[in-house]
Amino acid sequence: MTAAAEQRTPTTVQSPLTQEETIASLGNYEFGWADSDTAGASARRGLSEDVVRDISAKKSEPEWMLEYRLKALKLFDLKPMPSWGADLSGIDFDSIKYFVRSTEKQATSWEDLPEDIKNTYDRLGIPEAEKQRLVAGVAAQYESEVVYHQIREDLEEKGVLFLDTDTALKEQPELFREYFGSVIPAGDNKFSALNAATWSGGSFIYVPKGVHVDIPLQAYFRINTENMGQFERTLIIVDEDAYVHYVEGCTAPIYSSDSLHSAVVEIIVKKGGRCRYTTIQNWSNNVYNLVTKRAKAEEGATMEWVDGNIGSKVTMKYPAVFLMGEHAKGEVLSIAFAGEGQHQDAGAKMVHMAPHTSSTIISKSVARGGGRTSYRGLVQVNKRAHHSKSTVKCDALLVDTISRSDTYPYVDVREDDVQMGHEATVSKVSEDQLFYLMSRGLNEDEAMAMIVRGFVEPIARELPMEYALELNRLIELQMEGAVG
Amino acid sequence: MATLEIKDLHVSVVSEDAPKEILKGVDLTIKAGETHAIMGPNGSGKSTLSYAIAGHPKYTITSGTVTLDGEDVLEMSVDERARAGLFLAMQYPVEVPGVSMSNFLRTAATAVRGEAPNLRHWVKEVKGAMADLDIDPAFAERSVNEGFSGGEKKRHEILQLGLLQPKIAILDETDSGLDVDALRVVSEGVNRYKASGEVGVMLITHYTRILKYIQPDFVHVFANGRIVESGGRELADVLESEGYVKYTGSKEAAALS
């Protein structure tokens, strides 16, 4: 490290909050600060062919990608807004900034990041996770592009690729072109088309045959600019008998007008492979979060989506698994919280295409303060997918009487010999539970948070430890002042 | 020295049509070192008394006072009452799915003691207290009361009593549904608590059999929303042989066993 670089290193390392600091932070969205925004201020608003050409040119992309983007832009214009699900009428496509470049070059050490960006990630505790070796690789995306990237050397030696998606297009052109858009076509829906036209950043992962990545690869997404549109694109290929766990977290500042996050995530899990994809989404309450996530699981492969939706104004997200080969398995575990002004429309989609495939959907949602949660799920068993099994269990908890929860389960079975299970419950926090815990000295907020934590525990225990702790903290934040 | 003082307590519960008065003027003083047995037939208002003191929102105090060492209990929220030193061992403890017993106990102890107990001492303390009550250590990792039998729930109520060390404990039909062995174990737990310090116990029961294990200093007969007779240990023996018929006029409600 050079002397100059050392000088830029802050003398204090971000330490975990003390109990007092944690308590002091309660009731606030603690990721709501904004950094100075020179890059975003000058970015243009609105979407046109020019904007798309400009993004592609800035990235010096090959011709085929520009053509792909332009085709997608046409599809975006043609596709109607979804008329089902959450209210999206507040999105103003003309005011959004579609591409914001915050730094010219990607850093490979935290010290090399521009000061304001580094501060952001310091405050989010990301370098700590890397230092403590809780992760095998880190990517950090700020606005439109990945600004920091690192992977453990031994994994690199085994041939594991963990790149930002722009770099992958340059450095792995063949692998990239083979799989890009192969799971989610540009015209799948209006927002996948938007992403295909304007995508930037995201993660590209390839895990070679038989390689097990023992601790998670992690990505951190941050929107800083007001009215920003973040359209990252993630592509994960898990080769035969390989395993990877990818974890992503998302935050943004609080602004008075809205931002848009519209990602596309494509995953291919080959024969006998396994992929787990964990998201803890904690966008501020002015972000529309409209994400298309889909995986293909080949013979004997397992795909697991673990999806936590805590923040955002509106989320529409239904992670899907297409079970393409015999004995493939798909699982979606999701938690959603909706507070005041929030609508979490989340669920899952399982498509059985082969015999002996199985799927499990477990969804837990909590609504408070007039918030709204919806479970929306589809299980489709196609002809020839005999001896398939599917279990769906969705539980909703209402913390008060002004919140709302709905369940929209769709089942489409075209084969006789299948097993289907579906359970749905909506419950309220009972007066007797609160009384019991309070009679043991817990105040009302603590008691409520304990009940809610217990409710989501079956999913929280599936998270990496530091994320489970984070989730518990977020629940306490959400429950602060939830009662009375 | 801790004193719980109940004066002319009137309590109503909101039923479907109109508020219904359950307690019609209860007077009772419990001092540290004393055990008071409250005995009475079903429906006489014994449990209402315990819930009203603990502050269950279903019950409305229409008049009267409850003080703990001179402090107005009725002004306190449910959790403030617990932190002030009141404890209610419930007849039907609720289940809290997904919350482990060990987490619950430690959170409660932290709230009541005002600081988190030292982890190493705490683990020992809980293990010892569980062993004393013949509770399988595996229960520490189970969800609070979920899938527990009636007897297991009662043992865990007494486990909490021992760990939280209140000034005044109210035991609401802790003996109901227990077999002989469980009754003995639970009673021993209550006696250990009594011996541990200057504490007072209000023991609500329908039957006299628990009084063979836990010696009361005073016995009160509860009927129709108030205490109708008070005496010493010997009053329980009278109830044992004569039942509650004298106080209720109804043979059916008066059966003691």
From TrEMBL, chain A:
Provenance organism: Lentzea waywayandensis
Domain annotation SUF system FeS cluster assembly SufBD core: ranges: 221-455
Protein name: Iron-regulated ABC transporter membrane component SufB
Record-stated family: Belongs to the iron-sulfur cluster assembly SufBD family.
Cited Pfam families: SUFBD_core (PF01458), SufBD_N (PF19295)
SUF system FeS cluster assembly SufBD N-terminal domain segment(s): 156-218
InterPro entries (UniProt xref): Fe-S_cluster_assembly_SufBD, SUF_FeS_clus_asmbl_SufB, SUF_FeS_clus_asmbl_SufBD_core, SUF_FeS_clus_asmbl_SufBD_sf, SufBD_N
Protein origin, superkingdom: Bacteria
Any one Gene Ontology BP term: iron-sulfur cluster assembly
From TrEMBL, chain B:
Keywords: ATP-binding, Nucleotide-binding
Family: Belongs to the ABC transporter superfamily. Ycf16 family.
NCBIfam families recorded: sufC
CDD domains listed in its UniProt record: ABC_FeS_Assembly
Single GO MF descriptor: ATP binding
PROSITE patterns according to UniProt: ABC_TRANSPORTER_2
Alphabetized Pfam families for the sequence: ABC_tran
InterPro entries attached to this UniProt entry: AAA+_ATPase (IPR003593), ABC_transporter-like_ATP-bd (IPR003439), FeS-cluster_ATPase_SufC (IPR010230), P-loop_NTPase (IPR027417)
Domain ABC transporter residue range list: 4-249
SUPFAM superfamilies per UniProt: P-loop containing nucleoside triphosphate hydrolases
Keyword Nucleotide-binding: yes
UniProt protein name: Iron-regulated ABC transporter ATPase subunit SufC
